[in-house]
């Protein structure tokens, strides 16, 4: 898949170039729903900024493809010079999303196997998100980028899967007592090649801020 | 996240994404298998994961889309083969 800016509007919403208006409408709705933060299963794969950038581009595509005159112009442009954007309708193109924070990519190069032993995951510290905050979403994005299943973390750390999901979903109100939570966070951090103390501090700081906002 | 250019990493990413669906929507997987509407029920989550996968996996990776589809069946269906349902 080409980058966001390189994809044609048809590629972006996965609609056929000769699609009917109904097909365009349907493709648009599916594409849009795929990036709306309504699913607990996928909510944190992209950051809010990335989702906004992608949704912006999808809206841009729909604005053109749902208008017969603009679509004709766009199709002609596509045939002549590739997926250019009619400037009369669009704001500046969104940058390609960067769904994951910096991680040690070499970690994911290992061959696939059903389980990863603790020793394989325990590596030196040092990975940090760009904004310095380790919340559940950041931890999940790092985990996915490393190719580590939640079940593997649970298997290695012996932390209950429900706790892991709650940590990644930032469901502070259902998390265990802070003393246990810090221990869990440190174990998760080790599995993800992160600085354990930093992750625990950052996460619990965020949790306290959230609690303070609620009171 | 850098571009995935090897089959092993693509397979790994697909499995992680699908297993996350199973982890976060476990009840829906079971109900979907029981009612035989698994892929409709989880269409949004699967589509989101597929787009994320295709976004990161290079087009040069052999059988890129099949790797995702295989992980889908392997993790969501075979991984829940003990669910009591009429579809088996």
Can you describe what's shown?
The complex is a heterodimer of chains A (215) and B (88). Chain A has 215 residues and is mostly helical. Chain A folds into 2 domains: 9-81, DnaJ domain (Helix Hairpins, Orthogonal Bundle); 105-214, 434 Repressor (Amino-terminal Domain) (Orthogonal Bundle). In chain A, 53% of the residues lie in helices and 0% in strands. Chain A is built from 10 helices and no strands. Chain A has helices at residues 9-13, 21-34, 48-65, 68-81, 118-121, 136-146, 150-157, 161-168, 178-191, 196-214. In chain A, helix 2 (21-34) runs antiparallel to helix 3 (48-65) and helix 9 crosses helix 10 (196-214). The radius of gyration of chain A is 21 Å and the shape is elongated. The model of chain A is unreliable at 84-126 (pLDDT under 50). Chain B has 88 residues and is an all-alpha fold. Chain B has one domain (7-80). In chain B, 68% of the residues lie in helices and 0% in strands. Chain B has 5 helices and no strands. The mean pLDDT of chain B is 91. The A-B interface holds A 1, 30, 33-35, 38-42, 45-46, 97-100, 103, 105, 108-112, 140, 143-145, 147-151, 161, 165, 169 and B 1-2, 4, 6, 8-9, 11-13, 15-17, 19-21, 23-25, 42, 44-45, 47-49, 51-52, 54-57, 59.
- Low-pLDDT stretches of chain A: 84-126
Shape label of chain A: elongated
Give the helix/strand class of chain A: mainly alpha
The termini of chain A sit apart by: 46 Å
Question: Proportion of β residues of chain A?
Answer: under 5%
Q: What's the CATH C level of the largest domain in chain A? A: Mainly Alpha
Number of helices of chain B: 5
How big is the Rg of chain B?
13 Å
User: What is the 3D shape of chain B?
Assistant: elongated
Summarize the biggest pleated sheet of chain A: none
Number of domains of chain B: 1
Look at the helices and sheets of chain B and give the structural class. Answer: mainly alpha
Secondary-structure element string of chain A = HHHHHHHHHH
CATH superfamily of the largest domain in chain A: lambda repressor-like DNA-binding domains
CATH level-two architecture of the largest domain in chain A:
Orthogonal Bundle
Mean pLDDT of chain B: 91
Please indicate the percent range of residues of chain B in DSSP E strands (runs of 2 or more). under 5%
SSE order of chain B: HHHHH
Model regions low in confidence, pLDDT < 50 over at least 5 residues of chain B: none
